[in-house]
Write a structure and sequence with these properties.
The chain has 341 residues and is mainly α. The chain contains 14 helices and no strands.
Length: 341
């Protein structure tokens, strides 16, 4: 077995206690939520006997330890439980909604990186210039403006006043038919099907929510890029490269930018994991059917299985993302090698 594979397996093994802790904490905290899911499921006109029957059917009349053992046994079989709000298995709900959140989050991150990284590099190479001030304004605005406010303003300007944006009602306008499900990403599925009209329709629906989320994610990426580039440009190896007569472009991108990428990639990973679970406000404003809005709806009705499934899905994604970041480190800087422990 190679050292790289051994190290990857070691990192996966180190994540197992984290996942176990997430399972225990999410189970305990969901039981502490106010409200009774049996009351919601039985209906407003149900009497105490009907509520008791529903509670027994849901297994909520069992002792806490017994409920936890049953829940862990279901998890071992890949069963995340049944959602009482949708009436479907939680795994199916998450599988149908996760691509929508991933498509929105990835589109926003690509857009923010396309703007924030070059802006951070320019700000670092021209400190005190108008570009540097623009970077600071962007960072301040991105952190200060709530995403729901930005989304509402964009809808008001581009949909209500100018009329150039489609109605903010989900992933596709009602005049389009959903593409055949392959990946769950409407843009990719429409492109695979060769349906240019649906592709453009999905892209139009994605523009405003992606810009809204990108304005929020630009701030930490631009700030970290600027700080990392300033540190790299003042390092000894950059001064040595310039003294050796290398061109400014080679020094900037071949030496400084590559060494500044490590903290930028780390920040990008943290922003992605945070945004994927915290983009619920954007999803609500644009009626986007993602997992963030699904989790909030489940919290409102104390849907234990749905909330726990959401938390577990986010935990697994976070562990996977950390592994991907570790792999990216070795590609960016070969000096960081996988060492089996």
């Amino acid at each position: 077995m190679s050292a790289r594979l051994t190290s990857v397996l070691s990192r996966i093994a180190q994540a197992i206690p984290v996942v176990i802790g997430v399972v225990v904490i999410s189970f305990v905290l969901t039981r502490a939520l106010p409200g009774d899911p049996a009351v919601y499921f039985a209906g407003a006109a149900a009497d105490e006997a009907s509520i008791a029957e529903v509670r027994e059917a849901l297994g909520l009349d069992q002792p806490m330890l017994r409920q936890f053992i049953i829940y862990v046994g279901d998890l071992a079989r890949g069963d995340l439980g049944q959602s009482i709000s949708s009436g479907r298995p939680v795994a199916e709900d998450l599988a149908s909604r996760l691509p929508a959140s991933l498509e929105l989050t990835l589109s926003a991150l690509l857009l923010s990186c396309a703007v924030a990284v070059p802006l951070g590099v320019l700000a670092a190479t021209r400190p005190g210039s108008p570009v540097d001030h623009l970077c600071r304004v962007l960072v301040t605005a991105g952190v200060s403006l709530p995403t729901f406010f930005t989304g509402i303003v964009l809808i008001y300007v581009f949909y209500y006043l100018l009329g150039i944006a489609p109605s903010p009602l989900g992933r596709l306008d009602f005049i389009y038919i959903e593409p055949d499900h392959v990946t769950g990403f409407y843009l990719i599925d429409a492109a695979l099907a060769g349906d240019a009209e649906t592709f453009l329709g999905a892209l139009k629906q994605l523009v405003l929510p992606a810009i809204t989320l990108a304005l929020f994610t630009m701030a930490p990426i631009a700030r970290m890029t600027r700080a990392a580039m300033l540190g790299a440009l003042s390092a000894d190896f950059v001064r040595t490269a310039r003294a050796a007569g290398l061109t400014n472009r080679t020094v900037l991108y071949g030496y400084a930018f590559r060494n500044a990428l490590l903290p930028v990639v780390t920040t990008l990973g943290m922003v992605f994991s945070f945004t994927l679970g915290a983009n619920v406000l954007v999803e609500k404003v644009f009626a986007w059917p993602g997992i963030g809005s699904y989790a909030v709806e489940a919290l409102v009705v104390s849907d234990y299985a749905a909330v726990q499934g959401f938390v577990l899905a986010m935990a697994f994604l976070f562990v996977l993302l950390n592994l991907v970041i570790d792999l990216a480190y070795t590609l960016i800087d070969p000096r960081i090698a996988f060492v089996a422990k």
